[in-house]
Every structure is written in structure tokens, then in C-alpha cells.
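REQUEST FORM: STRUCTURE PREDICTION
Request ID: SP-0412
Submitted by: Lab K.M.
Chain count: 1
Length (residues): 682
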Amino acid sequence: MGGNLQAEPGGIASFSISVRNTGNTVAQHKLTCASGHGWPVELGPSQSSTIDFEPLDILEFLPMQVRLRIPPVTNGSPPAGEVDMITCTVTSSNDPTFSHSEYANVTISELKVFSTELFDLQGNPVGPEASALPITVETGETVNVSMSITNIGNIEIPLSVKLQSANTDWGMYLVYDGVIEYDRVTFNLLPGHSTTVQVTAIIPLSTFDGSQNAFSLTTRLDEVGTNQFITNGTNFLVGKLLGLSLESSGEKVQATVGAWSQYSLWLNNTGNGDLNLNWSTAEPPPGWQFGIDSAPKSIDKLVSSEVSFGVIAPNLAAVGDIEQSIRVRVIGTYYNDSVEVFIDLELTVVPTLHFGLELAPETSVHDLPRETQGQIVVIINNLGNSPGGGNLSAIIVDGEGVEDPEWSLQYEHSFDELQPGEEISVIISVTPTADAGSGLRTVEITILGQADEGVIVTTSEVLSLGVTAESSTTAFDLSSIVSTEVFFSIVVLIPIILFVVVRRMRSSAKIYDDEGESLVAPGVHTSQENISERRAAALMEDVEKEDDVISGDISQFEIQAALVQSIGDLPPPGPAPLPTGLPPAGLPPVVLPPAVMPPAAAFSSSPATTAQDITVNIDDNAAQGGVIGSEQSSSEPMPEAGQQNVAIAGMPPVPPTGLPPGWSLEQWRHYGAEWLQRHSGK
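STATUS: Completed
RESULT:
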């Protein structure tokens, strides 16, 4: 065999070996070859590393080809210069002691080769330059596309990348390892390694939709005497590109009975515009429920979003595939443009154990007598499609969700296997103790199914209902309404609060002297009862004016103000008026003065007119028989005893027979209304 052989990675190194019969009889030989690196070795027309020769006569020989397959480069291996030794051994079938070996070395040659790939804005390959898809961009946008370069040889190589564009008005440059180069970058690349060169393009604002700019990237082996290069390129297309894709794992949606099954979908915005989304699903079959959990209403450009699709199979749905598929559709809109995608999902119902809980009509747990049992009858239904049993648990809690120890529950904690559609009744005994409160309590019943392996048990079912004990037999059972701490707090705090309030009221109370005397005109004698009534009138308790507003407390200042208002206007400056009841000086009295004072009963009631209406002022004209009132513009003659139906503003009408005997005009003005009331029935 020869000495050193050479071959490139992925190639074949071959040589021949001949076997000659040097014995004195016919012999048969066997050839076996092996690689030191364990690489494949093929002998002759076969692909095996072992072959049996035909029987050879004396001095007859037979050549045999040996081929060593060098594996392709993987991460730079096998490296250039590496040597593999092939060992070939010849044995004889006639003589087991015969064995002869030959050796050959194969050296790995240098392989200087690289590959490139240009990607769009979404990271998708654009393909070869001749058939590359355009990259859609927008006016005024700055975009970055990248090209990866991989050394698929077995030795470090020098490379260069050159950028060329059809429209030089666009700002375009290269970025490599953080360094900006406008048209060309150079670098060395180790075997099995990759690197990335970025292309940045600034689209001018002056461009219009439909404008294009072709560019190319030429990657070259930067060695003298070589002409190995690869060119990648495509077009930048100015405009709006709308693109959506909706993907799934490709598996069928596994639906369970009684619980939501989640299935993931992936929505990808492959365009360069933000989209508003509108989701819809096909009408589900009877009993089925579909839904999209938190479906996004919009998606940004070049963004992917995971969407969860939920489905519930109807009760007692049989296990197996569903013929009808479900279509999920999404429409993305950008102003007046839109794009639509959909996906059809296949459904299959998986084995499921699902229980339903409901109360029987005979359940009675309200107003339970203490230490007396009430019954809760629970009906358990197997609504799934697989048999199974389960465990039952129940607790009773108060309004705050805390378990109440004053109530006891008795029930069977487990039940036997139920077939699909089968039901069973379970009785839960509820007993309030003697110390149980009469407030509302809640019984929470939980059931957890148990089934064979491979059967999905849906989440535990919970049923809640209210229970109450009978009202307390005591007059007032505050302790049953509130907690013990609150009850004792109320018992202690209420007396303290009452004591403080009484002390404050006593300390702030004021005592006023009896000022009833000031409510009686000077020189007038009356009874204590009349003084009380006049005080009540002064305090406005009997005032019936429409606009009056009466408060709970009347201050001394308010009483004085009411009295001042009832007195009326002061007389104009002049001689002081004569005392009431005496005739004017120099004139005889119109009638004889009364023999006695008016009856005391005439002073027992308040005048019928309000304090605001009594505004008649007596001045010097009264001596001449005239009366001037605040509501009159001229004086009126004083009525005589014989006058009939005389009316003066602010004064009751005079009887047809004149003033009663012994009455003066001033007395009639104040007390005439009461006299008329007393004598109206006579």
C-alpha cells in the first residue's frame, strides 16, 4: 500500500491492496480493514469493511480496492492536517495461524468554504438573490436587516463583505462588531463559526409609496488568486405590508366534560403595520362551549402573541373524535386595509370523570331547634363519560368564613363508583349546639372524584347553602348576633358613654330667671297662667306664619327680638302720648268709661293677629278721634258706640252695637278678636 494519502472532508480516500497465494496449495483468504478514527471503510464492490476472496491457486493474486469516507466538516472538524491510519489485515481460512497486516495514512486536506444567508425584518430568509422577496418599509423609517456568514470549512479563512445599492440617495451602511463601515468590511472566520453583518437603511421622507431600492451584499474569500464569492440581495419596497399568520401545534384539541380545556394558538404579525384585531369562532355544536381567553384587541408590527383557546364538552359526551371542526378567525385592520387569517381545529373528547351536585327538595335546615338534627340531602350525578367514585367533605362557617365549632355535621365521607348518568343521594345531618348563635351560617360541601389511570378528573365541585338556628328564647340575644368580644365591649362601653353625655349636658345647661313680668304691659294686672301663655306666644310656639322656621332652641336674644317686633314703630317726635284709656285733654269722653275693668278672661288668650300685623301707632291725632296705622296713608275716624261694621287695618271689626261696655279702643285692638270668638255663638 502507499504512504500518505490526502482527502477533503466529505470526500473519499481510496487505494488498492492485492493478496497473492505464495503457498503450495489452493488457499482462501479474508481481508479486513479499519479506520483509526472509526470512519467508514468500504472494500471492493461492497460497502463492508470485510470481504472473503475467492480461492486462489498457487502464485495467483487478486487486487481489492479500499475506500475511506471522510466525514463532512462539523463545527470545524475534522481539521486540516489531521491524519487517519487505515489498518488492513489478511487471514487464511486454511491456516488459522496466518495473519498479515498493511497500513495506510490519510491526511485531511484544507477546505476553504463558507455559506451566507440574508434575512428580512422578521428574521425570515429572503432566499437567493434572483428570487428574493422584497422587504417592505415605510417612509422615514430606519430598518435593519442582517446577513449571517458561516465557515463550513476546516480552516480559518479571511472574508470581506461589500455593500452596493441602486439608489445612492438612501442612507445605507454596514455594521460589524459594533463598528460602522459604509461599503466594505473584512474579518477572519474560524472553522465552524458564524458571524453576522448588519445592513442599516434610512428611508428618506421624500420617497413615495411604490419606490424601490435594490441592494446587494457580496461576500468574498479574501485571498490572492482566488475568486470564490457569494452574492445576496433584494429590494426595499416603500409601502404598507399587512401580514398575519395563525398557527397551532397541529394536534387535536382535547376536550373534557365539565371543565375548560386550554389550547394554545400563536398569532404573528408579519407585516410592518400595527393591526386592530377582531376575533370570531364558528357556532359550536349543541352543548359545547368555546371561547378565546383574553384575546388581544391589537398587535404591533413584527410581534408574536400566544392566544389561549378554551373548550368544554357537554355533559355525558362520548369519548372520541368529533366530526365537526371549529374555525377560529381573526381579521386585522389598518385604516381602510385589512388582512384575514383562520385556522380549523379538530376536537376530541377524552375520558373524563365529572360530578354534579344539587340539593333535594326535602332539605330543611332553617330555624333548627338547638340540639336537634336537620338534614341536607345532596344528589350526586356522574355527568362525565367514565365511571368513578369520590370523597365528600363538608364544613360549616360563619359570615367571615371561619369554621363554627357550635355546629356539628355527620355524613358518609365517601361513595361507591357511579356509572355515567348514574346518581346517588347523600344525607348530611346538621345539629346546632345549645350555644349556637341564631345568625346565618353556610355549609360548604366539596366533592373530589376518583377514577382509573388515564381518566381526567375535573376540578372538585363545591356547593354552598345557608343554615340557621331558631331565634333565641331570651328577650334579646345580642350575643348570638355579634361575637363574644364585641358583646362585652358593648356592655362595658354603653354605660360609660351615657355617663359622659349626662355630665356634659349638665355642665353646659343654663338657668334663666323668670322674665314673665316683662311680657305684661306696665300697670296691667293678670294671673300667673296668663303670663305663661304670653311667654309661649313670645317664644313663637303658637305662631302660624307660613315662612317661619322654628328651631329646637330659642335664645334670649331671639325672644327679645320677637318682643321688639311686636311692639311696632315708635311714635314720631312730639308730645308724649297720654295714658291709654283716658280721654284727651280739653274734650269730653265720647262714652262713659266702663264701670269696671274688662273681664280678666279677655286677657287669657293671645290676640288672633300676629305680632307683625299689630302696627298701629297712636299719636296726637288720637285725641281728636283719629287712628293712624302703618298700612294706612290717611287717618280714619274712631268708631263710636253706635257705628256699625267699622273696620280699621290691623284691628278686629267692631260689633254692630259698638264696643262692648267698658272696653276702650286700645283694648279692643288687642283683645277684640277673642271677644268675638267667645260671643260668636250667642
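NOTES: The radius of gyration is 59 Å.
Reviewed by: T.R.
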